[in-house]
Amino acid sequence: MVRSLKFKALAVAVIVAFSITHLYNYIFLNWRLERGKDIILSISAYQFLALTLMMATGYFYYLKHQITSNERE
Asked: Could you give the CA distance from residue 66 to residue 59 in angstroms, rounded to a whole number?
C-alpha cells in the first residue's frame, strides 16, 4: 500500500511540477522573448527536482493521512 501511495504521489508531482515549471519559465522569465535575438531562460534541473520531490513528499503524507483517517472511522 505504501509503495503504491509513493508512486501515485511521485507521478502526480512530476506532472504538476513540469506544468508549473513551464508556466514560470514562460510568464516570468521569457515573456518578452524575441526569437533570434534573446537567450531562452529556464530554471535549473536542480530546482525542478527539488520542487518535484517536495510536492511528492507533501502529497504522499496527505494521501497517507486520508487513508489512516478513513480507517479510524
From this structure: 11
Cβ atoms within 10 Å of 13's Cβ, excluding its own: 20
pTM over 0.90: no
Angle between helices 45-72 and 2-24 (to 10 degrees): 140
pLDDT exceeds 90 at position 28: no
Reported residue count of the chain is 73
Residue with cell 536542480: 46
One-letter-per-residue 3-state SS of the chain: CHHHHHHHHHHHHHHHHHHHHHHHHHHHHCCCCCCCCCCCCCCCHHHHHHHHHHHHHHHHHHHHHHHHHHHHC
